[in-house]
Each structure stands twice: as C-alpha cells, then as structure tokens.
Amino acid sequence: MTTKYEQIPSSLFVKNRKKFAEKLLPKSLAVFNSNDIYPISADSTMPFQQHRDIFYLSGVDQEESILVIFPDAYLEENREILFLRETNDHIAVWEGEKLTKEKAYEVSGIKTVYWLTDFDKIFKSLMYEAENVYLNKNEHYRNAVETELREDRFIKKVQADFPMHNYKRSNPILQRLRSIKEPEELALIQIACDLTEKGIRRLLNFVKPGVWEYEIEAELLHEFVKNRSKGFAYTPIIASGDNSNVLHYIANNMQCKDGDLILLDVGAEYANYSSDLTRTIPVNGKYSDRQKDIYNSVLRCKVEAESRLVAGNNWHRFHKEMGEVYTSELLQLGLIDKADVQNEDPKWPAYKKYMMHGTSHHMGLDTHDYGILTDDFVENMVFTNEPGFYIPAEGFGVRIEDDYVIQSSGKPFNLMENIPITVEEIEDLMNS
C-alpha cells in the first residue's frame, strides 16, 4: 500500500513495540485494532484516519488491521503478529494497492502476518496460553468520544468469549511511552512544522483587505498537500476581527476587513504527526499601536513560558506560574487592576477574563497528544506554547503559538524557530 509520505523506517516501530512489551506483566497478550472507516450517507465515507496506537506500534496505516503483541508466547513467531485484510486483484482495481504480507513486514518489522480470516482460530490458541490480556481504550483527559469504535466492539467480544482471563489497560502504558518522542518522531514533527512554515510564508504574501477566510484556508491546504501532507493536522481556525475572540472558531466564512487582525491557528500533518501553530496578523499588513501593544505583551508571555518548559517542571505547576505572568502583563496593559487581583476567585483568577485556556499541551501523533499531566516534563516531550489575550470589547484577540521539544537541561528547542513571529518580521514580509 502506498502512502503520500515517505516510508518511515520499520526500526522506529520495532523500538516502540519493544518499549511497550517491556511494560507488560508476564504471560500477557495485548491487542490493537485499526479505526473504522466512518460512513456519511449513501455510499460516502470519511477519509480514513488510522488509530494512532496501532500506527505507533506497527506503522500500518490501513483499515481492518489487528496487531497482537505476546512477548512470552511459546513459539517465537507468535510474539508479534499482524492480521490484515486479504488483498487481491479485484481490490487492487477498485480501491488501489493494499498491504501484502511482504510489504507489511517491510513497513512494520513484524515477520508473522496472517489474513484476517485466520484471526479467530489463531487468537483462540494464543488466549489459552495467556493469563493477562491488555485491551486498549482512549483515556486521554480531553476524550469525549460517543462513537462506538472497532476497538470497543472487539473488547465486548473478547470479554464475552474469554470471561475468565485477567484484563488490563494498555492506555496508561501508551500515554507514558507516546509522550516521550524518539529522534525519528521528532524528525517527522519537524517536517510537519516546516510545511506549516511554507504555508505561513505563502499567506503573508497573499493576505490583504477583502480576502475571505476560506481563501486563506485554501492557500494553506494547497501548500500542505503539494508537499505530501494529507492536509491540516486539525480543523483550521482562520478568525478575522471579532471572530478571533472565539477560541474554536472554525466557520472560516467571513471577509477580512482593513484594520482587523486575523488569528490563524493552523498546522500541517505529515505521516500522521501533527504541528500546531498560531500567528495573529494584520489584514492590511500594519498593526495599529494598540494591536502592537497587545501582540508584544502576548509575545513576552510566550518567552516567559519558554523558560518554564523545562525538565523537572510539571504541567500543573507550569500553568500556575503562567497565571502569575498573565496577571502581571494584564496589569501593565491596564486590562485589570490591583483590586481585581485582590478580590479574585482563586478558582477563576482575574487574568482568566482575558486568557481562559491552557498555555501548553502535549503534541505528536495527535495534536492534543497523549501525556499524563501529573508526570514531570522530561527530555523529548513535545509541547505547544500558546499564550493569548482575548478582548471582545476591542473587537480582537491575539494568540501566538510554537511547538517545543523539552531538553535534558535548559530551555526547550523551538521546532518553529524559523517561522516569522515579531511585529517587524510579519509587517516586512506582508509589505515586501
């Protein structure tokens, strides 16, 4: 099966499986399923997106795939098994190339590959050998999924068929493993960030009064797809004028007016890895004095956040520290006063009137990636850094965001360090 992106060396997935297998109890088997292809209506479907966990462990980017990891299986060939939908000439004509057994080995490094028709028989024999079964459910802190997944149906079936086994959760293991990136993963995230840079530079030459938000979206999509991306890593936010005060504005259907700002929260994906960028740019290529003051204040907050995205800090402490930074900047801007701070509700401090979201989240295979928030920051975790001030009374909001890799010591590495960010850089490029 061919993918848009260049094939990732199977050594990454071999390494990921080894890390996962080391965390399992003795006599344990773990199972992972692909995502479904979701229907729209009639015979229309959504474009396929692979479940990130099976992708992380195998590199298989295809529907109807199952991965079994059983480190203590008696026969060595049963320690890692892939089950794939059988391909044939008919499927190749109608749907295009699918993974052959040989290609699956090349992609994943897994030698034992069967067709799905053999799954029940083989799985049954493995289950008689295993004592613990690790099943996979999404336990991400932002998860709010109501759809039944292929994984959910599998969990129901296996627990009905084998009620006496000891069932365990694979997600806590994956949350920790996936939050710390391998060098190959950092390189893929860097490619996604570099594609985002291409899109932003293209836009700075394109934006002018009268342009529509959806035209900006189209420019970005063109730049991303022509560089081997599937497109956006998440639904793009192209928010001009007062729309910039809506945190998840995705309508992208307004005309951009002279004198307004446009908040662009956009990022390319590459090989299922995300990037996540925000810039707030002037429609006419020139910030007003007030817009510039707010922009530079948010930029100072971002620089302050950098010095706190360090090994040994943690998400909760980091956000408490950033609250103090926002309070101090908003006092300087005159948006809040000392009385507001003295009388604030500790559960909703005064600064929250203008900055109501978190400053950072894990990023990787998901834009809001896996990571346990109580864990300390360690080397090779990737975080966004995205302060913002939103001022509906003045008709605009400003957010600025880059993606960073935590280092073993000192400040984090900015994966987006080449993307224009200062008022001067943005104005120069928009007016060149």
Automatic annotation (TrEMBL):
The EC number(s) this enzyme carries: 3.4.11.9
Ranges for domain Aminopeptidase P N-terminal: 8-144
SMART domains: AMP_N (SM01011)
Family annotation (SUPFAM superfamilies): Creatinase/aminopeptidase (SSF55920), Creatinase/prolidase N-terminal domain (SSF53092)
InterPro entries: Aminopep_P_N, Creatin/AminoP/Spt16_N, Creatinase/aminopeptidase-like, Pept_M24, X-Pro_dipept-like
Co-factor requirement: Mn(2+)
Gene3D superfamilies assigned: Creatinase/methionine aminopeptidase superfamily (3.90.230.10), Creatinase/prolidase N-terminal domain (3.40.350.10)
GO BP annotations listed: proteolysis
Keywords: Aminopeptidase, Hydrolase, Manganese, Metal-binding, Protease
Catalysed reaction equations from the record: Release of any N-terminal amino acid, including proline, that is linked to proline, even from a dipeptide or tripeptide
One Gene Ontology term of the molecular function aspect: manganese ion binding
Keyword Hydrolase on entry: yes
Family label: Belongs to the peptidase M24B family.
PANTHER family, sorted: XAA-PRO AMINOPEPTIDASE 3
Protein name: Xaa-Pro aminopeptidase
